Structures are given as structure tokens and as C-alpha cells.
Amino acid sequence: MIFKEQITTQRIIYATRASIFFSLMWCLGSNSFAGLRADLIIVNGDVRTMDRKNPKAEALAVSDGKFTAVGSNAAIRRLADQSTRVVDAAGRIVLPGFNDAHVHFAAIGNKFSTIDLRSARTSADAAAMLANYVRFLPKGR
Question: CA-to-CA distance for 23 and 54, rounded, in angstroms?
């Protein structure tokens, strides 16, 4: 199925980008964080970086909705100020951006091309179900 191939390709691209980011941040070290302020830090985690050379870290930082640093608890804590949200992962695994928002097009298409009136007990029930159904149909259908 072409959609599954596209989703798989997209996931590979995201994982590759995350790996490159985490690798870069790891290689640059904590000195590269000078002047950076985090909106969110996650500490005490088992952060999986998706980088084969540096597969794990203790903490990460997020600024303006993007990963901005990964490293040791001490290095990442230095990026916090009084407005930074600090999350203690308590040793749990932290994975970068695995969001699965997808739909099976055939199933969702069928949802809008048929209506099941078997649960209607009266003509008023059927009319209410039909009224609700047509609210979601494209104009002219």
C-alpha cells in the first residue's frame, strides 16, 4: 500500500533527523549551550538519542518547541531559569517524537459513504441519525 510506504519513509526521515540532532548536540558538548535557555527540560531520564555512537543521555532541553540540547543532568539543568518547566523522568525511557496520527483511508471513506440504521427503533431515531449523517457529507452528495 502506497500510504504505508510513505508513512514508513516519513518515520525514517524523522528518526534520521532526530539522530543527527542528538549526535550533533552530544558532540558539541555542554560548552555549546552557553546563552541557551530552555522552556522545558527533562532530567533523570533514559533518553534514547537514536544515535549509534551515543545512544543514551540523561536529560534533554526544549526551547521554542524544538529539541535544543541533550546531555547530562548537570549540563541540561544549567539551561533552566525560574520559568523553565522541569520534568523528572524518574529513570523512564524518553523517545524523540514518535507521533502516530494516521487514518486508514478506506475505513474512513466507508464511514462517510454508508449509514447504519440498525439501532434506530423509531422513525424519529432514523431521522435523527440521518440528519447527523448528512451534516458531514460534502455539499451536493
Answer: 7
Residue the block writes with cell 452528495 = 141
Contact (Cβ atoms closer than 8 angstroms) between residue 105 and residue 61: no
**Dihedral sign from CA coordinates of 16, 21, 22, 27:** positive
Spatial distance between the Cα atoms of 77 and 84, rounded to a whole number of angstroms: 10
* pLDDT per residue as tens, the chain (141 positions): 455 566 666 666 666 666 666 665 555 554 556 678 899 999 999 999 888 888 999 999 999 888 888 999 999 999 999 999 999 999 999 987 766 777 777 776 676 678 889 999 999 999 999 998 888 777 776
- Decide if 82 contacts 72 (C-beta within 8 A): no
Helices (H), 1-112: 2-28, 73-77, 105-111
Spatial contact of 46 and 92, defined as CB atoms under 8 Å apart: yes
Distance CA 47, CA 58 (A): 6
pTM: 0.50
C-alpha cell at 30: 555542554
